[in-house]
Amino acid sequence: xxxxxxxHAGHPNRPNEDWLVATPQFVILLDGAGGPSEDGxxxxxxVAWFVRNLGAELLGALTRSPDDDLRAGLATGLERTxxxxxxxxxxxxxxxxxxxxxILRERPDTVDYLVISDSTLVLDTVDGIxxxxxxxxxxxxxxxxxxxxxxxxxxxxxxxxxARQAYIAVQRRFRNMTDGYWVASSDQAVSEAAIIGSIxxxxxxxxxxxxxGVADYIDDYHxxxxxxxxxxxxxxxxAALIDQVRTAEQGDPAGHRWPRFKxxxxxxxxxxxxxxxxx
Length: 279
Known about the structure:
Elements: E1 2-8, E2 18-22, E3 26-33, H1 47-64, H2 70-85, E4 98-106, E5 110-116, E6 120-125, E7 128-133, H3 144-151, H4 158-171, E8 195-200, E9 204-210, H5 212-219, H6 226-235, H7 238-250, E10 267-273
Antiparallel strand pairs: 1-10, 2-3, 3-4, 4-5, 5-8, 6-7, 6-9, 9-10
């Protein structure tokens, strides 16, 4: 597996809350959310601290047990990260830091994956392209009206900021519950809600792992197809794709064309190319 990647913070004066690592066997992407940057949360450390430490614990758990079920690896990483700040932080607070998670694991005959929350895994197979993302949050009826109200105001306006906080207040009531949506946070039990899958290694040509700061370019902005995205990654690389996203967003600074949470989100993408076992 050959991996190239790039990341770009959404704001120059704030830490990048995306986290990515690649090893000969694994690619892991986390995209943090919640905590003091949003609603006060229950954690004194913040989202960037959470994703860094979860990433390290998750990589350690997977490396120690490389053939275990990926949900078990995620559960171990979550539990060990919770132990790091349980004495100082209120981990039962609905606003405590959380993150999306994608794990991609290459094995001799298969490539396995885990996805929780709205980062996106794109699989370029001999049979076509498959995009895997956990978008259960979009199915919650109670969030439709608050989202519509927020999107009715220009980005950067006091009205948008207030509507965003109102949206988050409703959203967090549905976090990590049946008929709600799921994110990796302080409770290891959420690992059971993750989407998992496996594909024969010889059927997979390439894969792309994207935080929603990149995936929105396709899902929400409709500026390209997945095939066009994969072609860009193959020809020009991950940094060029992030540049395309930023150029589009800079042309719509108030969010009139593409209503969204913020002008720029943290953007991370990894492109993985697989050689056939016959080569």
